[in-house]
Amino acid sequence: MNIYDVSRQAGVSIATVSRVINNNTNVSEKTRAKVLSVIEENGYTPNAFARGLGLNTMKTIGILCPDCSDAYIAQAVYHIEQGLRKNGYDCLLCCTGFEKKVKEKSMELLISKRVDSIVMVGSFYTEDDDAENEYIRLASKDIPIMLVNGKLAAPNIYCTLCDDSAGVYDVTSLFIESGHTRILYIYDTLSFSSSNKLDGYRKAIKDAGITEENTLFIKQSSGEKIDDVVRALSEYKDFEKKFDGIIASDDIIAIGALKYAKKCGISVPDQLFVSGYNNSEFGRCSEPEVTTVDNKLEAICHQCVTTLMGVFAGNSMPKMTVFSADVVPRATTDFKERT
Predict the structure, then answer these.
(1) Which residues, 6 or more positions from 173, have their beta carbon under 8 angstroms from its beta carbon?
(2) Is the pLDDT confidence value at 14 over 80?
């Protein structure tokens, strides 16, 4: 049995059935009793669509992410889903990949499912070419759009992110203050977040009066990030003479750097400082444990859900919330204490 069967047997509209299901007071007691009787007699269990008809809400949120196998993205989706569930909302997840056409199609799919909002997880959803972001702005005319670790200005778009530039600036400055000035910065994406991290590195180098920038973009030809890092670093001759520090855009890349250092007999942190980013479980599982930057992922996701619930309640909510990152020193560095 479905809502249409209940409607037909009770002799009322499907909207009236949904109002009864949702305890809407705009139904007479006589009609309510009739509908409840049909529901009880047939053992009908209402689904989300039936509940949504009477409330103009499906109590369902769409989540878009580029790749749920990525540790950072998976953790973010987990925190968001848990927060939404606590507030009585179900979720529909679409893993879009990175092609714009698929992103747009996934957005259209979720909207067709009558979701109440869409949360876009990851900085790959905001493009440098602003015209490429128009499909997001168009969607925001119908429902609130939440960006996690992204930034886009529009009336019904709400952004929650970390100041990645400042986070990398701080850890780079700690390297320099500890006497490690020949620093290689390694990254593997060109996303909004990745660009901000690279800017932070370059600003710290410039502010310290260091003229030479050393950056390495890792192309993942093998599909195994750690192996690709080792391969790329192996192309440097006399690596230990060129660099005394590596700052990576995420913890996995930092672990690749550690693997290379062990292979070459380079002592960490005595000869080489290494730092990652994201404060993930990977950094704590490695030996030695990796210094990292905590980008407050759980707090960002919690704030995203809080902002969305405020929007639903009709409250005035901040269009952008930015969290500060913290450096987490571990065994791959030996920072001098700041005075």
Answers:
(1) 204, 207, 208
(2) no
Q: How far is CA 33 from CA 10, 30, 158, in A?
A: 10, 5, 43
DSSP category for residue 335: P
pTM of the model: 0.83
Phi, psi of 287 (to 5 degrees): -130, 110
Which sequence spans correspond to the domains of the chain? 3-55, 60-162+297-326, 164-295
> Residue 61 and residue 74: Cα distance in Å, rounded?
17
Query: Is-contact 182 334, C-beta < 8 A?
Result: no
The domain made up of 164-295 has a fold known as Rossmann fold (3.40.50)
Asked, colleague to colleague, whether 3-55 and 164-295 share their fold, the answer is no
The CATH topology of domain 60-162+297-326 is Rossmann fold (3.40.50)
Whether 247 contacts 275, CB under 8 Å: yes
Minimal CA–CA distance to 110: which of 42, 64, 160? 64
Helix (H) or strand (E) holding 62: strand 60-65
CA–CA gap between residue 258 and residue 230 (Å, rounded): 9
CATH topology for 3-55? 434 Repressor (Amino-terminal Domain) (1.10.260)
Residue 32 region by backbone torsions, left for phi larger than 0, else alpha for psi between -120 and 50, else beta? alpha
**278-300, pLDDT tens digit by residue?**
999 999 999 999 999 999 999 99
